[in-house]
Write a structure and sequence with these properties.
Elements: H1 3-14, H2 17-34, E1 48-54, H3 60-73, E2 78-83, H4 85-91, E3 99-102, H5 112-122, E4 128-131, H6 138-146, E5 151-156, E6 166-169, H7 203-216, E7 223-228, H8 240-254, E8 256-260, H9 268-276, H10 289-298, E9 301-304, H11 308-315, E10 320-325, E11 340-345, E12 349-351, H12 353-364, E13 373-377, E14 399-403
Parallel strand pairs: 1-2, 1-4, 2-3, 4-5, 5-6, 7-8, 7-9, 9-10, 10-11
Antiparallel strand pairs: 11-14, 12-13, 13-14
Helix pairs in contact: 2-6, 7-10, 8-9, 8-12
């Protein structure tokens, strides 16, 4: 079959996905009303636990701490994670995870591949399946229901979900939520602090990254500034020209050595940033996203838009400066963290250089006071890709940036 015909067939099958999901939920709802829930045996003896699903990289900030906490709570348990290919690359070497089960959001529910995957999952005797989303990932939850897990657990704001047989009614928490927190698992006797979104780099990976960067940095004095020019989680980012200007000013005024760390080095916006950047960057070949995360941990500071790597930097306790767009939700802003500063920008935003440098100094620990970042909106309302800033009098406006916000 030609690639074109395959794409057409996939599209036709995907058109049935909403109907399949609705029908499955209806069947499960009728079964739940007639069949009592029975654990069969104590969860203390649970041996196979499935986490559904790690779709985006940022999901791992919750999935890995949860896997670690579940292993601690259930010593005999093996943790399986249904994950996308990109997430699987990071999860595969993690000691918290026993198995990564491949997952693709593009696979139609009626496709042969998906049905074979479900058949293989049902051969595994899952004692518990945990939905890691906030109730909106219907496709993943239907997969959890079809997995054959005896107990299917998750949260839902309404407290009702036909794909689960144990639903935790919980409203969405306020504050910094880069990913859906799995703290509802605390009812299993797991301390809530063990379930907070976070990240760590295995010591061998960190040591290797340190050695590699040290070799590459010979002759380049200064502290390491990680930069991610990739697209943000809301589909927006600082223009390549503006971000390059900011990096150049930090390098010139504070002696930083920039290194580009991003998920897709060949993405057009990333290439445009490199073309705009006048100075040299530290070039280190990575073997994949795991290396990128290790290099991020080695940075003295990280600057980017609202990207996955920005939130990994926050989770790694790396000082960070986030350049957020007006489209970015408030939940993405890590407020109250002295080592993290965020700035909200919009079309025509002009940034004052001296205030940017004070934000950088504050995030790196040179000053932990409440230092605002003042911005000016251009009168012409032009595209932010053309915005530059100076320290000229009259370019200052009311405060728009604070520690972690």
């Amino acid at each position: 079959r030609s690639p074109f015909r395959q794409k057409v067939a996939q599209a036709l099958l995907r058109a049935f996905d909403p109907l399949i999901i609705h029908a499955t939920e209806a069947i499960l709802s009728r079964r739940a009303s007639t069949k009592p829930l029975s654990f069969g045996r104590s969860l203390a003896g649970a041996r196979d636990i499935l986490l559904v699903t790690a779709r985006e990289l940022i999901d791992l900030l919750a999935v890995v701490p949860a896997a670690r906490a579940l292993r601690k709570r259930f010593p005999l348990a093996r943790i399986h994670v249904l994950a996308s290919e990109r997430c699987g690359e990071i999860l595969a070497p993690r000691r918290e995870v026993f198995e990564v089960i491949p997952w693709s959001a593009e696979e139609p529910l009626l496709s042969r591949e998906y049905l074979q995957r479900i058949r293989a999952m049902r051969r595994r005797p899952f004692d518990l399946a945990v939905a890691v989303d906030s109730g909106d990932a219907r496709r993943g939850r239907v997969t959890a229901a079809l997995s054959g897990a005896k107990l299917r657990l998750g949260m839902h704001p309404d407290g009702v979900d036909p794909t689960l047989n144990l639903v935790i009614a919980a409203s969405v928490e306020e504050g910094y939520r880069p990913v859906q927190s799995l703290q509802f698992l605390s009812f299993l006797g797991i301390p809530r602090e063990d379930l907070a979104p976070s990240w760590d780099i295995p010591k061998p990976d960190k040591d290797y990254a340190d050695r590699l960067l040290e070799l590459r940095r010979r002759g380049s004095d200064g502290w390491l500034l990680g930069v991610d020019p990739g697209p943000g989680l809301a589909g927006v980012r600082p223009s390549p020209r503006k971000l390059a200007w900011l990096v150049e000013r930090i390098v010139a005024a504070r002696g930083a050595v920039p290194i580009v760390l991003t998920e897709d080095p060949d993405e057009p916006g990333v290439q445009a940033f490199r073309a705009c950047l006048k100075g040299r960057t530290l070039e280190v070949a990575s073997r994949g996203i795991c290396d990128v995360l290790s290099f991020t941990k080695c940075c003295d500071m990280f600057i980017s838009g609202n990207t996955n790597l920005f939130h990994f930097a926050v989770g790694l306790d790396v000082p960070a400066l986030g350049l957020f767009g007006q489209e970015d939700e408030d939940r993405w802003i890590p407020r109250g963290r002295k080592s993290c500063r965020t700035v909200t920008w919009g079309p025509g935003t002009r940034v004052v250089e001296s205030d940017v440098l004070r934000q950088v100094d504050a995030a790196r620990g040179a000053g932990m006071g409440d230092i605002p970042l003042r911005i000016v909106l251009a009168d012409d309302g032009g595209d932010d890709t053309e915005a530059h800033s100076t320290d000229a009098p009259g370019n200052e406006a009311p405060a728009a940036g604070t520690p972690g916000g």
